[in-house]
Amino acid sequence: LVCLGSLSKPLQGDYIGAKSNNKILSIISKHEEKEVLFADTIVKINRKCKLQERILLLTERSLYNIDPVTCKAKRRIGLLDISCVKMSGLQDNFFVICVPTEYDYLFVSSKKIEICLQLRRQYQYVHSGQVLPIEFKTHWSIK
Length: 143
Prior knowledge:
Structural class: alpha+beta
Oligomer: single chain
Strand content: 25-35%
Distance between the termini: 34 Å
Low-confidence stretches: 1-6
Number of strands: 8
Radius of gyration: 14 Å
Helix content: 10-25%
């Protein structure tokens, strides 16, 4: 567990028991992945501004958007395809995962700091030391 000075509690990673969920393990094993680095139920905001509950799952090479009701992957993003993360500088829990080859994801989570830290750490590992850009803004547009 890692604890940063700005955080009041240690980083847990798996908040929903994904490491022992056979349906989730089956999804990631299809892509020859084994390690759950972060998993939690969060809110995705779609293009029509509709709020959708999703499981956000980070593995050693991918980020998954999983429907919590059906436990089916709605989207898999390779970490190599992510260009940056945009975080709100306000205390509103909004953040965007930028995927220039497809479309961006707008999420809401009280664990946005932990998500971004875990994502940045793993991105750096798969990108041979390149650091994932994280932008802090109060206004931004998404693609």
